[in-house]
Amino acid sequence: xxxxxxxxxxxxxxxxxxxxxxxxxxxxxxxxxxxxxxxxxxxxxxxxxxxxxxxxxxxxxxxxxxxxxxxxxxxxxxxxxxxxxxxxxxxxxxxxxxxxxxxxxxxxxxxxxxxxxxxxxxxxxxxxxxxxxxxxxxxxxxxxxxxxxxxxxxxxxxxxxxxxxxxxxxxxxxxxxxxxxxxxxxxxxxxxxxxxxxxxxxxxxxxxxxxxxxxxxxxxxxxxxxxxxxxxxxxxxxxxxxxxxxxxxxxxxxxxxxxxxxxxxxxxxxxxxxxxxxxxxxxxxxxxxxxxxxxxxxxxxxxxxxxx
Length: 308
Ligand SMILES: Nc1ncnc2c1ncn2[C@@H]1O[C@H](COP(=O)(O)OP(=O)(O)OP(=O)(O)O)[C@@H](O)[C@H]1O
Ligand SMILES: [Mg+2]
Hints:
Helices cover 30% and strands 22% of the residues. It is globular, with a radius of gyration of 18 Å. The two termini are 29 Å apart. The site of adenosine-5'-triphosphate has 22 residues, from α7 and α8. Magnesium ion (MG) binds next to loops.
């Protein structure tokens, strides 16, 4: 365990807002104008939603990533700061645009249009040894979108571990559907946090229990998100399953990231694996109760009341 550090978690991640448009959102071309029910600009990007969820639980969180010196970049900096995330290490660049996702929300289904902008721009060399030494844990999300970070991520994780940090990775979906790059990365990952599709695709397995075991051969812990079916945790010697918490679903954006924040809270506080996984499932469920990724993330007190 590292002695006292400035931050519990350093997040090395992508930065973009989400513009969520709801109602009759099927676009019609030929310059047809349609009126929709609502449009909300909110914190997007898996990494930023995770960071806000962890800060909401009371962890000290710092973020490093790249955004543009533009309206969306300034929006993200202000919103993350408002939620207690330290943004002083974020690189603001004038030579590019902050990424943006437009989410067309139609009931339970949604279509997403993403302009990557500076989403892929963070590099491992942007993350100094000094910054790593200030943190207890390093989390990376959206591995497949962070293409400049990808090739050097195993080295970054090993560098972090050499300073005593633990590491975690939530890949999210691979738009290329190749699912490559894990041979060196998983051995440097303390906690791997895929969802069902991601775990099956990465291992090539048909079955989640066997995927979990294969992954746990390579890293210390694997926590697999199973949507409404809950979550599964696998270490080399132990399997833990927790069911989901029944909840009225408004919007699923950010459930996985808020789950990750809950699991890491328990893990970093030295809780047992089952209790950490239960907290994660409660946090994931909480986040479903409002539109967008961060609006319904729970405080520790709110989550603990549910945990009982
Ligand atoms: N319908 C649901 N009811 C209750 N809990 C849910 C539901 N959907 C998700 N959860 C909780 O949230 C956790 C994470 O959700 P999910 O499996 O959708 O992750 P994900 O696919 O990584 O999400 P994301 O879209 O944020 O990347 C689940 O493991 C579960 O505990
Ligand atoms: Mg996910």
